[in-house]
Amino acid sequence: MKNEKNDEIIEQELELQEEQTQEEITQEKETQEETTPEEETTINEEDVEIKNPEKEKVGIIDLPGVGAATAEKLESVGYRDLMSVAVATPAELVDASGMSAAVAKRMIAAARASLDMDFKSGDEVLKIRETVEKISTGSDSFNELVGGGFETGAITECFGEFGSGKTQIGHILAINAQKLDENAVVVYIDTENTFRPERIQQLAEGAGLDPTKVLKNIKVARAYNSDHQMLMAEKVEELVTKQNLPVKVVVVDSLTAHFRAEFIGRGTLAERQQKLNRHMHVLLKLADLHNICVYVTNQVMAKPDMFFGDPTQAIGGHVVAHASTFRIYLRKGKKGSRVAKLIDAPNMPDGECNFYVETGGLKDV
Ligand code: ATP
Ligand code: MG
Fold first, then answer.
1. Which of 191, 144, 141, 183 is nearest to 166 (CA)?
2. Are 138 and 362 contacting, i.e. CB atoms less than 8 angstroms apart?
3. Other Cβ atoms closer than 10 A to 164
4. Does ligand 1 lie within 6 Å of residue 164's CB atom?
5. Backbone angles phi and psi of 309, in degrees to 5
6. What's the predicted TM-score (pTM) here?
7. Is 198 left (phi over 0), alpha (psi -120 to 50) or beta?
8. Shortest CA distance to 153 belongs to which of 241, 250, 79, 82?
9. CB of 358 closer than 6 A to ligand 1?
10. Which domains does the chain have, with CATH numbers?
11. Residues 174-217: pLDDT tens digits?
């Protein structure tokens, strides 16, 4: 049964790849036509101006150097509005569509010029902050620790040893997002095969929600390797922009397990960190552009040279540490309780709290 399912997924992917190569061939012809006349690296003002700035709905197709095929190609990989192009790097666009770096630079400049990307005053930022929602953990003391709940528009990372409650928190967020808004959609990228619909049912009942409805609003993606995981994260954008789903939470459980397993040895570290960095940026963009609460779990490794304090360290190094807005260290406490320690947050003091993982959800000690 499971094998059949795997085969199905693999086949679907193969089909997709074939389609893409076909597209690439036509695409290559297109870009050649588009770019050969004036292949320049300098960007002059006229190029940057978009064709019809007055028009209300300006799209990617209106950017300089973008033909129908390029627009379609970009759209197919998730560049659906000007903002997504404006915040992209030239290399990303080159990767996505095979266009030349010069064209990519010009496109990005034009997209930036057409959007309101100026500085915002502090009070404007405060207004934007008012759109931030806090998703409850179910435990008052845990909520207090993180300023009311896990924030939308940010990445929250929990790291800790096995059984410390990282996956449980992922499940609980999936429930509580729907408690906040019954139509909220939760995306669960499951890399370790630990998503359990039965557990969701239990927790939904504990929260007084209809388990069937809650399960319907959770989109689960099983990721089989790090590339697959990155692809699934990129696809979330489509759920929001193409299918108009009100995605409120994205869980990546575990963020680092595949990366850790696939890149072994010192020589591969740089490549792993680069990939991880790209992945974190995709997640950050999701959080930022669509006001989504991104929750990632991370493992720890033993720090052999540590003599005092806790000899464990999160995987992923600075890349994960810097990209996460909130970092929480989870460990097992006394009498089956769990301890959460906030170690990095933009506007909250570091601190600790205790809670229990119970059948119905998290409970205060
Ligand atoms: P790993 O690193 O292995 O993924 P984790 O941090 O994700 O670990 P969890 O799976 O979140 O760990 O936590 C497992 C623990 O949660 C169990 O040991 C148990 O204490 C608790 N737990 C799980 N399900 C229930 C339940 N239905 N009722 C009560 N407690 C539960
Ligand atoms: Mg887990």
1. 191
2. yes
3. 23
4. yes
5. 75, -160
6. 0.77
7. alpha
8. 250
9. yes
10. 60-114 (1.10.150.20), 125-364 (3.40.50.300)
11. 999 999 999 999 999 999 999 999 999 999 999 999 999 999 99
Q: Which of 164, 357, 358, 362 to mutate to test the pocket of ligand 1 (most atoms within 8 A of CB)?
A: 357
Distance CA 290, CA 230 (A): 18
Kindly list the protein residues that place their beta carbon closer than 5 angstroms to ligand 2, a single-atom ion: 166-167, 194
Measured CA to CA, the distance from residue 82 to residue 87 in angstroms comes to 9
Q: Is the Cβ–Cβ distance between 156 and 346 less than 8 Å?
A: no
In short, whether 114's Cβ falls inside 6 Å of ligand 1 is: no
- 3-class SS at 361? strand
Q: List, in sequence order, every beta strand (DSSP E) within 254-321.
A: 293-298, 300-302, 312-314
List the residue whose alpha carbon is closest to atom 22 of ligand 1: 357
210 within 8 A of 201, measured Cβ to Cβ: no
| Cα–Cα distance for residue pair 45/109, rounded to 1 Å | 9
pLDDT band per the 50, 70, 90 thresholds, residue 44: low
Which tokens is 362 given?
Answer: 């998290």
Instruction: Please give the distance, rounded to the nearest whole angstrom, from the Cα atom of residue 154 to the centre of ligand 1.
Output: 24
Query: What is the C-alpha to C-alpha distance for residues 156 and 345, in angstroms, rounded to an integer?
Result: 9
Tokens of 260: 């850790």
Q: Which residues contact 46 (CB under 8 A, 6 or more apart)?
A: none
Ligand 2 mean position, distance from CA 209 (Å): 24
Residue closest via CA to ligand 1's atom 12 equals: 163
- Candidates 113, 5, 136, 8; CA nearest to 50 is 113
Residue written as tokens 């435990």? Answer: 139
Residue at token pair 């990282």: 166
Instruction: Summarize pLDDT for 47-104 with one digit per residue, the tens.
Output: 555 544 444 467 888 888 788 888 888 888 778 788 888 888 899 889 888 889 999 9
CA–CA dist 141, 351 (Å, integer): 11
